[in-house]
User: Fold these one by one.
Assistant:
Number 1:
Amino acid sequence: MSALAIEHLTAGYRRRPVIHDVSIDGIAAGSLTALVGPNAAGKSTLLRAIAGIVPASGCVRFDGADLLREPIARRAQQLAFMPQSLPQGVGLSVLESIVAGLSVSAPEHVRSGRDARRAAVSVLESLGIVDLAMGRLDTLSGGQRQMAALAQALAREPRILLLDEPTSALDLKHQERVMGAARRLAETGCIVLVVLHDLSLAARWADRVVLLHHGRVVADAPPEEALTGDRIGVIYGVTARVERNRAGRLHIDVGGLAESELG
Ligand SMILES: Nc1ncnc2c1ncn2[C@@H]1O[C@H](COP(=O)(O)OP(=O)(O)OP(=O)(O)O)[C@@H](O)[C@H]1O
């Protein structure tokens, strides 16, 4: 199965680079990678660059091709990107929005409108939100919109799934559902890259954690190696201890602002 390799990626806005020469290699099929880092570190920009939404130099290698140079239609068949927030003013129901997304790039077994509706309902069921199917996107709560955005991305059955802070508006149950769905998709061979602010969530669900700071990779390792108290302290400007709880899970205990941050 194909791995994803990001090579010397530089990207930004109006010629101001935000991501500087980022390389992340061997992102294996079937793996879930968390992208973490402080605000404005460049996490969303990196995802958008991989998705081809912001211009980038360098290369995103997948399946023998450079995704950055693939035609949009071909890239859309491989990759789905869930943005931090859905655009406002879209007068569609959740179900209609998923079906509309499938009309752009549906998996092979979704051939007719009926198949698309069936696929959409099945994704909504898997996320436990089938009751939202007929709800209009514009009338949903922030968390419900986030779940709808995830459903749109999952329905396309991508080989690479890019999730930008998919849990930021969600309660604990829905966080579990979202991370569980991402993990299940990874288990089918998909490559999942997910931006997370919650480091405990990253430690719990990710195989690999990439820590970004000022647009550069400062750690890229399994969670227990990437997320050390000292490193979190320096990068986030807090005092932090990383412990294993009784269940064996990493827990990040933040004690307060680092001395350097206290005015
Ligand atoms: N559309 C845009 N136009 C211009 N600059 C942008 C745009 N989007 C982001 N930036 C800038 O790029 C830098 C990185 O932003 P980005 O959203 O990638 O960071 P992030 O790590 O995802 O942040 P956060 O955790 O706060 O969401 C910031 O300085 C931001 O101001």
Number 2:
Amino acid sequence: MTDPRAKLAAAARDFYQRGWMLGTAGNLSARRTADSFWITASGRPKDALSEEDFVAVDLAGRVQEATAGRRPSAETSIHQVIYRHFPEAQVIFHVHSVEANLCGHFAKAGQLRLPPLEMLKGLGIPEAEPAVDLPVFANHVEVAQIAADMDAAFLQRLPRVPGALIHEHGMTAWGRDFDAARHHLELFEYCFRYLSLARLHGLGGES
Ligand SMILES: CSCCC(=O)C(=O)COP(=O)(O)O
Ligand SMILES: [Zn+2]
């Protein structure tokens, strides 16, 4: 893969402007080789990332390349789990939107039922599929626990959709390239906005 850092910085700026990466929230990554990836450094402002704000790590989380004073995202272990379980994933976006955090409250037994919208086709769901669930994981102060929970769940069953929600934290979506990861994230966030507004209007709250 060609150096993805400029595209990651542009994506972060875009997501910041949408209100999804405020106050340094979120982290983005892209594969560097089959077994390493570039990820945002921890605590950096997502509207003004430069090349130095990315750290290269391997799939075990060991730093391969970093500018002095930069450490990898505190949530690197979550990206490791996703790259390990989804060999086709090349890009991962993790953001914190208001709507995603509202929708975590609508989940039942660790699954959020997505609205049956035409747009689900963009998540790779065939027209005929009646019910599509997004996995929802508990948040933990120890990020390693979130990553371990995801790892255990994905070992049992891979999600039907290219994403996972962390309750009262944020959404993570991935794809085979930059466009696919962005489209997936946009579709999930559209579903979250739809579900939040539907509740507000007293529609479909108990599905
Ligand atoms: C200020 S957001 C709290 C940490 C977090 O959830 C996040 O996504 C950003 O963490 P990072 O270490 O990647 O900056
Ligand atoms: Zn986060």
